[in-house]
Amino acid sequence: MVVQQQHFRLSFQKVTLLVVLLYLSASPVLTLNQESKQGDIKGKNSDEFNNVFETVKTEWQELGQEQSSSSIRQKINLRATESPVKPWVDRTNQQLYLSYGLAFAQGSNANTYAANATNCLRRSFDTYYQQTLLLQWRYYYGNVEDQIYNSTKFVSTVTNNVMICFDAFENYVYYNEYRFSQFSSMTSVLTSFFQNLIGNAIVLTRYQKTLTDAITKNNVTSLFEQAGKLAILLLDFPEIESASLQSANPFYNEDINQRQEEDKILNSEELVQEVETNLQTDFELYDDDFISDYLLKEAHPRLKESKTGAQQMLSAGGIVSFLRGIANGTKTLKTNNMSVCEKKVSDKWDKNFLLMVNQTQSGLGFKVGWTILDMIYNVNNITQSCYTGLKESALGLAGYVKLQYPSNVIDNVVFNFGNIFDALRDTVLFFASSSRGEYNVPYEAGEGVGHAIWQIIKPPTNPRKDKPF
After folding, report:
1. In this predicted structure, what is the pLDDT of residue 76?
2. Residue bearing the bigger pLDDT, 198 or 292
3. Burial class, 281, CB count within 10 angstroms (exposed 0-12 / middle 13-18 / buried 19+)
4. Could you give the CA distance from residue 168 to residue 336 in angstroms, rounded to a whole number?
5. DSSP assignments along 117-163, one per residue
6. What are the boundaries of the signal sequence (predicted)?
7. pLDDT above 70 covers what percent of the chain?
8. Which of 38, 61, 37 is nearest to 48 (CA)?
9. For the chain, which residues make up each domain, given as ranges?
10. CA 413 to CA 453: how far, in whole Å?
11. pTM of the full structure
């Protein structure tokens, strides 16, 4: 009897294995969406699939026990999906192009003319490969909510690298401003350029031979390095009676900082008065201009009373301020994330927007760039706090409303009708006319809406659980 049971058990194992093999052979793809996400792992004809299957089958035979087809498929999927994401960026080419760029930077002595140039180059290539690959993995496995965070995280990370490159560009511009200040006129620049070509004719001929040899030997790295040296030879020329640019070391020792000088100008009382005068003039002449309108409202709060709520909502923080008011007015919606959201939006977007417009009016191009980059860099932090805060608020409100009895809501509407009517009336007036009653800013209007909602859903003083309706 025992022998028959063992024989039956072995026969059952063989039959099970045969069924599994037939089932897997007929399966067009390994898993759901496997064709779209893996591409190379398809059907029984794939070499990788066959290797994986043979490995799993051997393990199954060594175990000497029955396993369902789903169990075997899970093992195959685990091995087949060890690297499901194919990088958008070829790592080999990325390293190759980076070496070319660094060779050119070394040959041209780039950091002398634009500090942080090589850092920008390295970070750009690393970010291009690593961050795009990381983004791919997150897109592959994440849900819709994850994609929101992943996208903003990618933007903030890339912006951090852009800041380094922007700093290198700023240094290069300031260096060139100093360099051209050494020439008396544009005629002097052109004369010195041609004089430099004539004086280095023999050297240029030697560089021509060096570049030709590098091309012949297919030494691309050397070619880029020599090209960098040639670029400096052509572009680094002094005025005819002056010394070379590379010998201008006293420039680095001078206590001159362009940004500090600009700060001194900005802080001067004369400029402040001039800006205010220009703003008033712009407002009178260009009443529909958004920037002038926004600046004027912030510089002169008393003029807000002459603007409708719809116009105020066009400001950078108008909509966010309105939502913050709703969150505060509806007591059940107030969360810690919403508080963090309020602070970050105010500090990083509202204030920076106003600062950016002032800098634009003053012609401070690089300061405008830094302000914009700072706003973009904080996209991820603001998204996390605001999105999470709004989600928590919505879930909290939904859960609270779900627990309310219809009779309680009706009682609230009846007993608090006066408060609800006043709050909604002032909110409507805020958007409809310049004579708004109690509300003067979007935050107050939003708080009125939140207060009206709270008056409708707030818990009763004496709950009637025995009479839910």
Report:
1. 46
2. 198
3. exposed
4. 39
5. HHHHHHHHHHIIIIIHHHHHHHHHH--HHHHHHHHHHHHHHHHHHHH
6. 1-31
7. 53
8. 38
9. 2-80, 91-246, 307-457
10. 10
11. 0.54
